[in-house]
Each structure stands twice: as structure tokens, then as C-alpha cells.
Amino acid sequence: MTLRWLVLVAALTLPLASAQGQGSLMDQGKSLLNKARPSGGGNLSTGDITAGLKDALKVGTGRVVDTLGKADGFNKSPDVHIPLPSALHTVQSALKKVGMSHMADDLELRLNRAAETAMPKAKQLFWNAISEMSVDDARAIYNGPKDAATQYFRNKMSGPLADSMRPVVNQQLSEVGAVKSYDQMMAQYKNIPMVPDAKADLTNYTLGKAIDGAFLYLGREEAAIRDDPAKQTTAILRKVFGH
Fold it and tell me: pTM score, two decimals?
């Protein structure tokens, strides 16, 4: 296993957020190859590279949790704020007409609170999911089409990760009062004459938004660890990614 191949695997596998419209992960992986080349590369062992990659993921995930897993981490972020589901836009409009838009606003806030409180509880789930990627997986991505990495994460990672996080998000929706807020809002909506039926799956909607937000921020943290010496906060990160 050559150093060039190991670094390319890292470049391909870590920037998870590229699926958010930032272009092909394959293309970004190739462009990151030179940036990720460590100083004194010939002196690094396979163990150094592996430890560095694992540390980068743990450090990055920790920063993501610290950023998103606090009050207003989602709610006040222009990138990952969670709006009401589109299925409830009719409800929101109808309530606004009768002077009760605050009910929709309250629910939207509680959806963001649920995602924020779920993030710390989900950190280990993210670590477990990422650690399951093998070198064979990375080779398949490299030899596949330009969107192979995007397909890989969507098909193999998103499902198991969502299954693990769903109970966490469901519990948090209840604990922050989102379920109660939703029931009260819908009861008021149904009292308005001539409105169409409407409903939303709050758990799966909030879950999807939380995972998307975490991957978006994780991709940014990984890029920062590669490029910014100030972000290389452990000895192994400085050894592997230092310039």
C-alpha cells in the first residue's frame, strides 16, 4: 500500500458534505491529494496514516458536535437551520391569516431544538458509521463513476446511520415539546373552515435535516484540518497533515 494511495483514500472518504451540491467527491478527492501530502511523507508508516485519519475524524466530529449540539447551533445557522416541512406550509399560511402564525413559529423552533439536543447523543453513532469504511470501499469509489462516492454514502451510510439515530431524534422531539406543539397547531388548524388535510412526519424530517447538517459541517472541519495548522491540535494530526 503506497503513501499516495492511502492519502487519496483519505481525500476521497472524508469530505462527506460534498453531496450538498459542492461537486463530485471524486473530483474533490483528486484536488485534495496534493494538499493532504504530509511533510517528510517517506518517513510516515501505514500506522501513522491510519491513526492520523482516525484522529482527524474524531477531532472533526467533536467540533461538529460542539458547534451544532448547543442552543441555536441549528436554529441560528443560515446553512443548517431547519424550516417547517413543506407539507406544513399550507398550515402555516392558514394560521397566519387568522393571527396564529406564532404556533407554526414555535414548532419550527422546537424542531431545531430537537436536532441540537440529539447531536451530542449521536456522536458515537457517527464514529461507528465512519469507522466501517474499508480500503476496498474506497477502491470501489475510485474505480467507479464520478458520482460513485456520493452514491456510496447515500446507499450504504445514510440508511444505517438514520436507523441508529431515529430513536434519539424521536425522543428529543418529545422532550423539547415539538410533538405537543405540533398536536396543538394541527388542532387549531382543523378548526379553520375549508382547509385541506395536512400532516408531516416530524421524526424522519428532523432526522434527515440533522444528518445533512452534521455531514456539511464535518466536511468543512476535515478541510480545515488539512489546510490550517491551527486546526491540527494533536501530535498525530501535525505529523500527518502538517506542511
Answer: 0.73
